[in-house]
Amino acid sequence: MDSAVNSLFSEVLPGKKNSEVFNETCDIDCLREEVVARLAKIEEDDSCQYWWQDKQLRNIFESVYKSGCILLPRDAVERLRWIAILCLQMSKIEGFSCGNVIIPPDFLPDDMMEMWVDVYGLDVVGQIAMIRMDLAKQGWEAIFPGW
Questions:
Q1: Are 147 and 140 contacting, i.e. CB atoms less than 8 angstroms apart?
Q2: How far apart are CA 20 and CA 99, in angstroms?
Q3: Pairwise CA distance, residues 125 & 22, whole Å
Q4: Quick check: 89 and 35 in contact, CB under 8 A?
């Protein structure tokens, strides 16, 4: 995961590798456990919503971000992708397969999403592209009020 966060994202904190910032976040036991428990609940409920539509999951990240315990990218699209890859890694650490909740197009750059259309369908990849376009145009606060 280290090479992915170093190469697929802009620098989160100048002078520090993204992998260090990423791993520090994943090492917060209570955060990781809470995130994975929420992902499991999303999967269990099977409400067919996208993970970013889950207010409780967003609130988990929002509260620790606002408290200064974690760093997130400033760019809204990268922030969404970063949270997705954090969820994936936290799930892996906890032994939970979140493959029905977080999928590769959630964290890959736009130019890499197209190859997943055959796997997940145009509707799913299109929704991911749509939230990213909205974030790029309107910003994080407009899409996720309160941040």
A1: yes
A2: 25
A3: 25
A4: no
Would you call 118 exposed, middle or buried from its count of C-beta atoms within 10 A (0-12, 13-18, 19+)? exposed
Q: How far apart are CA 102 and CA 106, in angstroms?
A: 6
Amino acid residing at 49: Q
42, 96 contact by CB (below 8 A): no
- What is the rounded (10 degree) CA torsion for 87, 80, 50, 89? -10
End-to-end CA distance of the chain: 27
Q: Tokens 């280290």 label which residue?
A: 2
Would you list the domain boundaries of the chain? 2-143
Per-residue pLDDT of the chain (147 residues; tens, 9 = 90+): 788 899 999 999 999 999 999 999 999 999 999 999 999 999 998 776 789 999 999 999 999 999 999 999 999 999 999 999 999 999 999 999 988 899 999 999 999 999 999 999 999 999 999 999 999 999 999 999 877
What's the pTM value of the predicted model, to 2 decimals?
0.94
